[in-house]
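Supplementary Note 3. Input sequence used for the single-chain structure prediction.
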Amino acid sequence: MSKKNQKTLRLENEFWKKINNLRELNIPLETIQKKNKDKEEKKRKIIRASQIILANDEILEGVLELYTQNMILKMGMDLFINYYISTFKKYVKDNS
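The predicted structure, written as discrete structure tokens, is reproduced below.
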């Protein structure tokens, strides 16, 4: 197996592991409550869109292609993954 194929395979495995971890984090939209209702609504829209994407394997296959081919996009996706995890920890009290 060529070095490029090994790297691609490693990135694919890394991506799906992260996606499976995110799929386990259910953020009920009603738990997102802020004093500023405009910010609350924006946060809920972001999380809902994320949940739709995480449930759609076809979209994730396209995201995987970007993840494996472009380091800047990979870094952006990793930032988004960290955002989703931190939001989960903030709004879901029983996150054991």
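Helices lie at 3-23, 37-54, 57-69, 71-91. The longest helix spans residues 3-23.
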